[in-house]
Amino acid sequence: MSKLASCFVQRGARSQSFKPYSLQRSTSPLSPGRRSVPIVRGVDIAVANASTSSFDFERYLSSKAKAVNHALDLALQGLRCPDSLTESMRYSLLAGGKRLRPALAIAACELVGGHASAALPVACAVEMIHTASLIHDDMPCMDDDPLRRGRPSNHVAFGEPTALLAGDALLALAFEHVARGCVVVPADRALRAVVKLAGAAGVGGVAAGQVADMEGEGAVSVGLAALEYIHVHKTARLVEAAAASGAIVGGAGDDEVERVRRYAHFLGLLGQVVDDVLDVTATSEQLGKTAGKDAAAGKATYPRLMGLEGARAYAGELLAKAEAELDGFDAARTAPLRHLARFVAYRQH
Questions:
Q1: Phi, psi of 147 (to 5 degrees)
Q2: Which of 1, 35, 184, 263 has the highest CB neighbour count under 10 A?
Q3: Domains in the chain, ordered, with CATH?
Q4: HSE (CB half, 13 Å, CA atoms) of 325?
Q5: What's the whole-model pTM score?
Q6: What pLDDT, in 10s, does the model give residues 133-142?
Q7: Which UniProt keywords apply (predicted)?
Q8: H-run or E-run covering 152
Q9: How far is residue 190's CA from residue 72's CA, in Å, rounded to a whole number?
């Protein structure tokens, strides 16, 4: 794992940021009967937020989730395969959730002046890839988790063979969906989006990160550099691909795509740091999955390597870095992405 050190993302100086709207007093329970404390540390919440305070992020996210859910439902209709496979795919893909990755793809497209409809196939594909990775992640040969989003994991509900194949089918369907669905954008943009998504799903992303994660279980030598490699690949790469692909189909130039990708890079790592903190401080009921499982498996986590307060401070740094990448874009168009970053930072499950 020491060979992975080159992938370590250096921690920069803390910048000022703030909590938005209803999340301003968001807290995370440490344990029953103890006072709650914020997830993120090292962030100045007194900075004025007039530029985005009028933006209704909950309404925005809800509208995007509704559009994505409808499109995903349509994508799973009329599949020529055994009903059990379709049901298994639907069970996980339509299980709900905030649809943050699809919303990110759409928001990135709109950021550079594109229309949401151009990014919808990419948004659906991102969610298919993400869902496939979760199905495989939960299986006994991987993380062996019986719960996902508060109900039995796919392999518990449908059996391991069907769950494995449902994940495979969703992964393949993702690329078919982009190829068939990106009819309102030039073919070269669609192809670039496919390349981004494929890279994030395979050896340049999720697959590599998952292998490194499993190899690091119980290893006392796993340090921060190796941990960062795991989560850059297992988590951040797909978030990057969602944002970059959305920007590409929206007509962004290379410099804009790269800035959006860097924003998403920090956002992806931020989400993992918050996940690690919640794994320590929240309950299984709150998370909808088994709490404390990483510690029980001997996995390296940010709280384990940095301490709980250090992990919270690092989350604050990542939030500030993500928002800094949006400076220079049209302020009104950055509102969804700024609020998305804060939503990830201050969520409770």
A1: -120, 145
A2: 263
A3: 51-346 (1.10.600.10)
A4: 24
A5: 0.84
A6: 999 999 999 9
A7: Isoprene biosynthesis, Magnesium, Metal-binding, Transferase
A8: strand 151-152
A9: 19
